[in-house]
């Protein structure tokens, strides 16, 4: 196995045991980027010399006995919403053409402190306001969408162009591209990972989280990044926690909620079959399946849009009025639509969220987690605007992709997307596990146990 093919956990162990040097790993990943990037367009910028310099420093530190932990010497990418001192945070927009970050975001600083090696900034849908990342191609089929808005991060990890990456998630933007590219994506509890230095889409819905090749890898990154930061008003005062799951696969006593409503409505049959098969595997590992009804389903879309649209417009108010021509048309239309929403609309959405939080808390007292599809369909072809379901219902692609992921943003509960197979065309399918606030360990334990029973996944191999 070539170094770029190693998942984070395996690479970290090889580095710790002096069987692999950070320089060898960085060179392997950079060579992979040089080979794959022209076809996939996962990166905005790749700082190869900076990467090599950091890898040499990591190698020297480790040789001198200054090993910082499992992220030390590991090459990674960060979504181009996340500030890294001295580099541009373009957010995929001409509005930010002359931007340079003056300091590190909290998550970038914590990665640097852990010894991780930055490869570069990954592509995003403009200001994260979309579900496709149109400039990036799917890692399994370049004629299909990458998913968004963290499409660059997901494709980089799926194709071996980063050992792990960071994304952001406002309505599914970590989990959607992770599912569509066959990797693991974790949206933590709202406030668990600080957002200081991260460009906002919607203050009350935004999350930062890892995209990795395995569930154990996601746990390693979460352990390094979680913790309070007073510069983020939403940051939770949580103690340091080791999120790494144990090696066992016994899920006896775990109650897994299987939705009777919402999550399997208007879902591709191959997606449904793969997710239900994965749920059956959780049961085979000892979990007890419990049917649950998802509350307030008719209000989910209106609540999500009622919160996100006015908050996004408020963030962009100044530039929307001074340089509207610099926005892409799809994003500008959404931002202008936010100016037409009333304070009453926004307050009703907040009230709906409060009621939804109460109802989801009730459901999650009955079960330890809920298992459901991450997205209702695999990656559509680039340029496809709608999906037609078996009953004739026509749904916009972005509406379809956000439909099953947005409840976790509205409520702030953690959600983990895990690959659970492929459709007949060879495109990845994802299952999401949703849990109680600050119960990431439960999701990671279940996801890891499932993963341990499956064959090792190959990297995406674009012809």
Automatic annotation (TrEMBL):
Q: Which residues form the Amidase domain?
A: 25-444
Q: Which domain of life is it from?
A: Bacteria
Q: Which Pfam families does the UniProt entry name for this protein? A: Amidase
Enzyme Commission numbers on file: 6.3.5.6, 6.3.5.7
Q: Read off the Gene3D superfamilies from this record.
A: Amidase signature (AS) domain
Question: Top enzyme class of this protein?
Answer: ligase
Quote one Gene Ontology molecular function term. Answer: asparaginyl-tRNA synthase (glutamine-hydrolyzing) activity
Q: Which UniProt keywords apply?
A: Ligase, Transferase
Q: Which residues cross the membrane?
A: none
Keyword Coiled coil (UniProt): no
Q: Which PANTHER family match?
A: AMIDASE AMID-RELATED, TRANSAMIDASE
This protein's name = Aspartyl-tRNA(Asn)/glutamyl-tRNA(Gln) amidotransferase subunit A
């Amino acid at each position: 196995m070539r170094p770029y093919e190693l998942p984070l956990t395996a690479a970290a162990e090889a580095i710790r045991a002096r069987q692999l040097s950070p320089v060898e790993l960085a060179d392997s990943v950079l060579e992979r980027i040089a080979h794959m990037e022209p076809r996939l367009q996962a990166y905005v910028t790749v700082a190869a010399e900076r990467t090599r310099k950091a890898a040499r420093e990591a190698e020297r530190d480790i040789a001198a006995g200054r090993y910082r932990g499992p992220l030390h010497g590991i090459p990674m990418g960060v979504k181009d919403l996340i500030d890294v001192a001295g580099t541009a945070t373009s957010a995929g927009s001409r509005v930010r053409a002359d931007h340079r970050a003056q300091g590190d975001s909290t998550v970038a600083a914590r990665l640097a402190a852990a010894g991780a090696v930055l490869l570069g900034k990954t592509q995003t849908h403009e200001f994260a306001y979309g579900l496709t990342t149109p400039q990036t191609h799917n890692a399994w089929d370049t004629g299909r969408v990458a998913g968004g808005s963290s499409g660059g991060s997901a494709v980089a990890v799926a194709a071996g162009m980063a050992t792990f990456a960071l994304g952001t998630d406002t309505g599914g933007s970590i989990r959607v591209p992770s599912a569509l590219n066959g990797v693991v994506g974790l949206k933590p509890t709202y406030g668990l990972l600080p957002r200081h230095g991260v460009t906002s889409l919607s203050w009350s819905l935004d999350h930062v989280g890892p995209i990795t090749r395995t569930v154990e890898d996601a746990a390693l990154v979460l352990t390094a990044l979680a913790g309070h930061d007073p510069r983020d008003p939403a940051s939770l005062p949580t103690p340091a926690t080791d999120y790494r799951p144990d090696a066992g696969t016994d899920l006896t006593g775990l109650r897994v909620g299987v939705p009777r409503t919402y999550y399997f409505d208007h879902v591709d049959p191959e997606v449904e079959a793969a997710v239900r098969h994965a749920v059956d595997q959780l049961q085979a590992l000892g979990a007890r399946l419990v049917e649950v009804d998802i509350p307030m389903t008719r209000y989910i879309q209106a609540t999500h849009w009622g919160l996100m649209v006015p908050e996004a417009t408020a963030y962009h108010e100044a530039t929307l009025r001074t340089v509207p021509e610099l926005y892409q048309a799809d994003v500008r239309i959404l931002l202008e639509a936010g100016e037409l929403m009333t304070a009453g609309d926004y307050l009703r959405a907040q009230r709906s969220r409060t009621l939804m939080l109460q109802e989801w808390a009730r459901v999650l007292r009955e079960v330890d987690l809920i298992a459901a599809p991450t997205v209702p369909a695999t990656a559509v072809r680039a340029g496809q605007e709608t999906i037609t379901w078996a009953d004739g219902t026509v749904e916009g692609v972005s509406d379809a992709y956000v439909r099953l992921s947005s409840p976790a943003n509205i409520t702030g509960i953690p959600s983990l997307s895990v690959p659970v197979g492929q459709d007949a065309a060879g495109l990845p399918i994802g299952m999401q596990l949703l849990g109680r606030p600050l119960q990431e360990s439960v999701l990671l334990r279940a996801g890891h146990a499932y993963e341990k029973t499956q064959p090792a996944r190959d990297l995406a191999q674009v012809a």
